[in-house]
Amino acid sequence: MRAQFVLSEIGVGLRRNLTMTFAVIVSVALSLGLFGASLLMRDQVSTMKGYWYDKVNVSIFFCNKNDAETGANCAKGAATQQQKDDIKTELNNLPIVQNVTYESSDQAYKHYKEQFGDTPVAGLVTPDQLPESFRVKLKDPTKFTVIKSAFSERPGVQEVQDQRDTVEPLFNLLNGMNIAALCVMGLMLVVALMLIVNTVRVSAFSRRRETGIMRLVGASSFYIQMPFILEAAIAGLLGAAFACVLIVGGKYILVNNWLAEKIQVINFIGWDSVVAVLPLVLLIGLLMPALAAFFALRKYLKV
């Protein structure tokens, strides 16, 4: 009987505040959708970093005969074979180095031609203008500064370059987008909480007579509060369910059927990451409105 009464009170409350309940559902759906998307974007950035950082190398470029005036390291002209051998020996002895690959001027020119093809720029460079280099593969790409500090000032070394510089701006952009999504999510979450609290207050005020009667006949505070808490929890759970639909739809339509076809060089996150986020979204959607309603009712159900 008690359960039937609680359920009937929940139905009455949802019907009386249908407009505000709908607003709660929409705001919770948007805020939790952004929350789930931000978690997935964080995983995507981590996946991309692991993928690209594992492929980039540290390049040690040697001076050639055309670099005598470019700096103190190249003042004596092209790097000698002894200087190259010494540097390679030191690199192989470093525990952070995985392997070292030598690239000659001819090989560098071949890669240059492959990159620029038949464009006018390709004819501006000759093989002797491109420096020889060591392509250094690190066990931990974040240890680039160790290589740079050890070899950038060595005689015969023109430059030490980390290829991460070419992909770092992309990761910074994605991190910025993630922060922006979290900020918008926080704003929407505040709006959702305010709507939940106001909805509960209006519902409690409209049923203050029934509440007073229940208090007079000895009903406990928890029993009186339960219909209001469950109303908020149901609205939040519906919003969380819509958020899950938005997340799954975004993964299927935006990522799988559009971005994955347009940008094939990026290894996008899989469905396992999405499935891992959905229970958290549903849990927050259930608990957040229930707790907000519980604290809002402590004052408005005192009769």
UniProtKB/TrEMBL annotation:
List locations, semicolon-separated: Cell membrane
Domain FtsX extracellular: from-to ranges: 56-160
**Transmembrane feature ranges:** 21-41, 179-200, 221-254, 274-297
> Is Iron there in the keyword field?
no
Q: Which InterPro entries match?
A: ABC3_permease_C (IPR003838), FtsX (IPR004513), FtsX_actino (IPR047929), FtsX_ECD (IPR040690)
User: Does the keyword Nucleotide-binding belong to this entry?
Assistant: no
Q: Where is the ABC3 transporter permease C-terminal domain?
A: 183-299
Superkingdom field: Bacteria
Keyword list (alphabetical) reads: Cell cycle, Cell division, Cell membrane, Membrane, Transmembrane, Transmembrane helix
Question: Which topology term describes how it sits in the membrane?
Answer: Multi-pass membrane protein
Family indicated by similarity:
Belongs to the ABC-4 integral membrane protein family. FtsX subfamily.
Subunit structure of this entry?
Forms a membrane-associated complex with FtsE.
**Function in brief:** Part of the ABC transporter FtsEX involved in cellular division.
Name-wise, this protein is Cell division protein FtsX
Q: Which gene encodes it?
A: ftsX
